[in-house]
Amino acid sequence: TIVKGDAFSLSIAAASVVAKVTRDRILRAADIDFPGYGFADSKGYPSPVHRAALANRGATTYHRRSWSFMEGLPPVGEPRRDPPGTKRLF
Known about the structure:
- By secondary structure, the chain is an all-alpha fold.
- It has one domain (5-70).
- Helices cover 38% and strands 0% of the residues.
- The longest helix is centred in the N-terminal third of the chain and has 24 residues, at 10-33.
């Protein structure tokens, strides 16, 4: 990991832009597939509106199942799964 690598390397800066554009495109598609979660306005972290949708509607196939706040949420898509050997604190 290179902290603030985009300030030192054009290839890191370009990769950062590509990653963000790709993420935004994926989240806009997710917003069409699962309206009400606020995916189109998301930057990858759960807003209060998004957390409320998770609590009321459950998780989708787009959600990262390993995040601790996903525990106990009803799944819309696949159930939470942890990779073999994963240790959780809570």
